[in-house]
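YM 10:42: Basic amino acid ABC transporter substrate-binding protein sequence, as discussed on the call
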Amino acid sequence: MERRTYLKSVGGSAVALTLAGCSGNGGGEGTTTTGTGTTTETATTITPGTAPGFPPFEMKEGDELVGFDIDLLSAVVAEAEGYQLGEWQEFAFDSLVPSLTSNKIDVIAAAMTITDKREQTIDFTNPYYNADQAILVREDGSFSPSKLSDLSGHKVGSQSGTTGENIAKELIKEGTLKESNYNSYDSYVFAVQDLQNGNIDAVILDVPVAQTFADQRPVEIAFTHETGERYGFGIRNGDDDLQSALNEGLAAVRDSGRYEEIRNKWFGSSNQ
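YM 10:58: structure's back
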């Protein structure tokens, strides 16, 4: 599996993380070496998991896994004392939490919103990104909703297991949206393709992802639904050492200006 490697410089010497095999339980160990090959400490290899198809957070360019989350977690773990990053594992979004709790992976990096429901099953790091939900439509002007109730009578899609799907389910529950008019997808790529093809009329998804699709395809954001969502890296309940290390790594990445560099690379200048 292709993976982007993060290198950092300390005191002018390049420090490379030597990756061990996929541990699946945070128990894998490797060594951190200097440019001269001298072993300086033993590090625990953690296996990251994500769900491609959510640009610009995680996506495939050919066989390579790239995106904001990929770069950010790599940078954070490089700053997390005692840990190093193993090979990325890819899943459908709604399979990430079960994969974490069954020890197939050790951390989720997938633009996952911190919610009370998810925190009943897993823990999160400190938030690293704020987002609301957007309603995406075709740019031909055939449907121009301005509020959620305008979705009534129209076919709507979102990705399975996401907060966008939660909004759709709430609309179904309250009677605004017919269940037969809702389509769930394994990936937002498929949902947006169906939108382009006229099979659905709107897609509910996170604002930064909606904007990326709008920049690349003949679709546009009709309106934004404010939710105050915050993304965090998911970890297993009780994995306090890893949680602390990742929080410290995230703080170090922010303080060093590396967070801003990664953010600007994938989103341009924004207030995050």
